[in-house]
Amino acid sequence: MAQTQNGRKGRTITLKSRSDGAELAAYHATPPPSIDRKGGLVLVQEIFGVTDHIRDLCDGFAADGYEVVAPSLYDREEPGFEASYSDEDIARAMKLRDAAGFTHTKGDIQAAIDFLHTRNNLRVHITGYCYGGSVAWLAACRCKGLTSAAGYYGRHVIDFIGEEPKCETILHFGEQDQTIPMDWVREIEAEHPEVRVYVYDADHGFNSDRRKNYDEDATAQARERTLELFEMADL
Ranges for the Dienelactone hydrolase domain (predicted)? Predict the structure, then answer.
């Protein structure tokens, strides 16, 4: 059953993974009636879960005309998990990320893609941040029905560098990000010349206005490039 989020236009729905049938909660935001619909978007969480920040991002893309779904990828391990940016919560989030890994990535994201297609979205895109940036890369390589993918500072992209995206893909990285060496970024560029890789004078997590690493200019430029990809891909 869908539930409306307090103070938000979005609602919580339930998706069933295509890998093992597990039920995952997901935040679902739709464009206002006054906005022309542009398609569907799967938005993938940071390591911190589907937090207020992630719901804000969903609402923002919905205001741009996209029907957005953000699945809670830790629901097998800890349903409803949402973390702050405290050291203690970061440690908890990292343990959950490691527990979840990427075993069910294809099936979980495929469920979100399929849901958006059932709602008459002919074009479905994906974006993700941190852990979600790596998930977005894998979804571009493994899932069906995606029009484009935009991944933000996905540390594990390098681990799956041998896989090939099936849709137009761009990647965003921060030059000051100590968790993703620039050597890795250049290796990804060399291996995948078809993928547009953008590097900003910013740190890991630059897109989150809840974090000390937030960079307004990098966020605005990356969002502009991501929206341009969504609108122009597969035309």
Answer: 24-231
